[in-house]
Design a protein that fits this description.
Elements lengths: L14 H13 L4 E5 L4 H9 L24 E8 L2 E2 L7 H7 L1 H18 L3 E3 L17 E4 L8
Helix pairs in contact: 3-4
The chain binds zinc ion.
Length: 153
């Protein structure tokens, strides 16, 4: 199950926004790297099976063909710390504030940047399922083109 990271696989309507986002995070020194761009329906099916027909926790509620990734309309940007992908979405805000103040601050700033500069064009997974007092929704690594379903080629 191959993870694709090539920006050339993104839809031409979405790619410039993704590149602007990456450049913006580079500018402020966040350790984000492209984890995934386009995702095949086959990989989506394998992810969907996790926690259902194959072992492990559930990782998605989206069936093949229904993720923006399946159409090159989404990108996952994940922090790499000391060479390792770090999946830390800050769901337990208070604990993180104490134990990982740097991570907490970074996500707060990501939210501010998205709101100020990308809100019109991009939907952010940090808003998906967001409920205060959580810091973030369940998919803060994920950015997708707003209205992508209407723009599928
Ligand atoms: Zn994603």
């Amino acid at each position: 199950m191959t993870v694709r990271r090539d920006l050339a696989l993104l839809d031409p309507d979405f790619r410039p926004h993704a590149e602007r986002l990456i450049a913006r995070f580079e500018l402020v020194g966040f350790p984000f790297h492209v984890f995934e761009t386009y995702r095949s329906n086959q990989r989506q099916a394998q992810l969907y099976a996790k926690g259902r027909s194959t072992p492990g926790p559930k990782v998605t509620r989206v069936i093949p063909g229904h993720s923006a990734h399946n159409h090159g309309m989404a990108i996952d940007l994940v922090p790499k710390v000391e060479g390792r992908w770090t999946w830390d979405n800050g769901l337990s805000k208070d604990r993180m504030k104490v134990e990982r103040p740097g991570v907490w601050e970074m996500w707060r700033e990501v939210a501010a940047i998205w709101r100020a500069d990308f809100f019109e064009e991009l939907a952010w997974g940090g808003q998906f399922g967001y409920r205060p007092p959580q810091l973030l929704g369940w998919d803060p690594w994920h950015f997708e083109l707003r209205g992508w379903r209407r723009r599928i080629r």
